[in-house]
Design a protein that fits this description.
By secondary structure, this protein is mainly alpha-helical. It has 1 helix and no strands.
Length: 44
């Protein structure tokens, strides 16, 4: 079994996935906040 060397693993795919997850979370949160503001304005 090969020796593990800290910091040599290629994590570009993991970074892309995490970036996509964060982008999705930010957009979803913004949409939810906008919907709540709209509902408050129309006295729903």
């Amino acid at each position: 079994m090969a020796d593990h060397k800290h910091g040599e693993m290629d994590i570009t795919e993991k970074e892309k996935t995490f970036e996509g997850f964060i982008r999705f979370t930010v957009w979803t949160t913004a949409i939810i906040i906008l919907v709540l503001i709209f509902l408050a304005l129309v006295n729903a």
